Amino acid sequence: MTNPTTTAPVAAPAATQQQTRSIIIIGALFFIFGFVTWSNSVLIPYLRIACELNNFESYLVAFAFYISYLVMAIPSVWVLERTGFKNGMSIGLLVMAVGALLFIPAAMTRTYELFLLGLFVQGTGLAVLQTAANPYITILGPRESAAKRISIMGICNKVAGALAPIALGTIALRDADGLVQRLATMDAAAKVAELNELAARVILPYQLMLGVLLLLAVLIYFSSLPEIDTNQEDTTAADATTSKTSVFQFPHLLLGALAMFVYVGVEVIAGDTIISYAAAQGIALSTAKFFTACTMAAMTVGYLIGVVAIPKYISQEKALQVSSVAGVLFAIGALFTSGYLSVLFISLLGLANSLIFPAIWPLAITGLGRFTKMGSSFLIMAISGGAVLPLLYGRLADYSTAQQAYWLLIPCYLFILYYGISGHKARRESAL
Question: What domain of life (predicted)?
Fold first, then answer.
């Protein structure tokens, strides 16, 4: 293959076509991110019934999945340093396939710990994928329009996130309300038989997921996706980074990682708790299984707004500020209403959340130079907020109510607001 560094520049139309193909490929990956990630919203109430769990135990689903980002983010950087972005994405898909495979013996034996291991392995694969895909889509075009490209990826992610709970919920939560009522009157042997049948429902969906992930891993490996050298790309920022010796010398990155931590926590709470919360509000699970799709639909609307408005009408910073204020208002609405209206406010958190991730990411990695990969790994580690905060929500729900536990959202959105107003500007200050 011809070395691109020694040939004449590629013609603009060809370069544009290559960029478009790359965006389509990465968009397909973000679709997979969304489908796997937001299946958890069904797994939480499903495994709560199948494995006889309380709120706290059921939210270990989110913990096992998202804690892998904290554990595997830096190892993911090592993988990408050795394999490059494209091959690293294929490896991530293969690891996710192993996680899907573990669901089959977990369902056959109704072993909660094995379900959690499968989720952790899937999260590990996603950590590799996201460590590659997020900076890739950021660097693929002009930095000032990065939020727009990430918004396009978000649409792919959230369309899958809307489909996943409906598709999996139709299978896993079929007649779940009637089953819960029947279980209360069954003897021990009949109860075990019913729960075993319930657990077995996820075998076929995860077999299909296994096949799709393996196929995508092969397709990505043989695709025309170009490699991007972040070290080369960042030489233009040399003046800003030559005096830096550590990634910890970028205050805006560290604050951005904390903002990402609380953001992912509130996003996961909005998407993964809504089915269980609706049930706690007296809404049947047969209806509640659609509410995560409503949250994802609201996020998709927000992403579409981002595609149109950023940066032409609104800056990334302003989008972050508006989104965090909306998050506070919708959370208060959920806390002080009840029934379908309260659940609607939780769904609207999807709208508030939609532009936060696309805005935080480019603001946090701006000017990192040769530290871009490591900085990206910090932001991936921060996705572990999706492990910690939902678990805290579950504990609060056990001690108070599912509704009052949503007070947890308020300080999170306020910190995101601080980052949007002034925290991201810390990069202009001297090193820590």
Answer: Bacteria
